[in-house]
Amino acid sequence: MRFWGIEPKVGLASGSYALLAFYLNGRSGMGLAFPLLGLFLLVSGLTLWLVCYLQVSKAYARGELLTKGCYSRVRHPIYAIWGFLILPGFSLVIGGFMLFLPVIYWLSVLAFIGEEEKALEERFGDEWRKYARRTSRFIQRP
Prior knowledge:
Layout: H1 7-28, H2 35-62, H3 77-94, H4 101-124, H5 126-134
Helix pairs in contact: 1-4, 2-3, 3-4, 4-5
């Protein structure tokens, strides 16, 4: 599996829906939006995403499984940040049919995440299995 993991597949599904939502918003005039809350989520999410991206890209370049930093508590913090902060923030800024974008995103992530985890297990073996046992996928365990 390449560096981008399942993101191209998830992006295709989410991006296709986003285009449809823009079209439907234009046709219907739906305007329910919460731009200030959306901007807060977007800025917070993009900041966290950048931190996690820098960490994982360095580990990937070294051929290592990252289990520290952003990845110490959950296996897929970047997908979580996109699903809980960035896309909901974007959706709240735009409003209307775009409000369903996070649902489409999560459905596609859940449909494809097994592929990425299988590839990681094949690449890192026991190290991945131990890491997967002690961390959850997207939300930190209590």
